[in-house]
Write a structure and sequence with these properties.
Blueprint lengths: L1 E6 L20 E6 L2 E2 L2 E2 L14 H21 L21 E3 L6 E4 L11 E4 L8 H18 L25 H10 L1 H7 L1 H20 L3 H8 L1
Parallel strand pairs: 5-6
Antiparallel strand pairs: 1-2, 2-7, 3-4, 6-7
Length: 227
Amino acid sequence: MFYSDTMLGFYQYQTTNYVPDLNDIGSGSHVHLSLWKNDQNVFMGSNEYNYHGMSNVGEQFLAGVYHHLPSILAFTAPHPNSYDRIQPNTWSGAYLCWGKENREAPLRTACPPGVPLDMVSNFEIKSFDGCANPHLGLAAIVAAGIDGLRRGLKLAEPIESNPADYASKLKRLPQDLLESVESLAADKTLHELIGDNLITAIIAVRKAEIDHYSKNPGAFGDLIHCY
């Protein structure tokens, strides 16, 4: 199951008298996911297995999402302008990493009230755009998690502070839509799990977006006004 929350741009919180501007970072539609079986949360760790609060299933699923995140961005950050938001120090996740309650990481495991401090109940994907198709975005995330379960993938150690402080050691997530599209084009696993026809269509649409926005730099403003 999942839910999303809309979050205003980071810089809005840095001013006392905020005036909206089309050139600001904008909003993100962050997504929280947990894994359930027979009405039990199986993402959460237990006495049998507890990797930073996650079960073995939880770790493997999140590791799959972590592994495929550059490709997933082609679904969850679908417009050229999306990458103006996915920058360091904007609570959107600019580097490939994860962390417990780390709001600067693109993948954050969460310990909400009522959950023991040594456990986590779900994880959040912060690099998810308000313009994304939620059905396609979630399909890509679930497909990546399934790959993690099939291959028994393991997570790297978490980053517990600002990832920008480790910029020299961490991989930068795609900085524009073309990078995400190239990652998706080369991702044979997502081709297999989602289907070549849909992946081919997604790539074609994204390339058309890139071409349109390159010829019309102000097009994102028209998009905002349409809503």
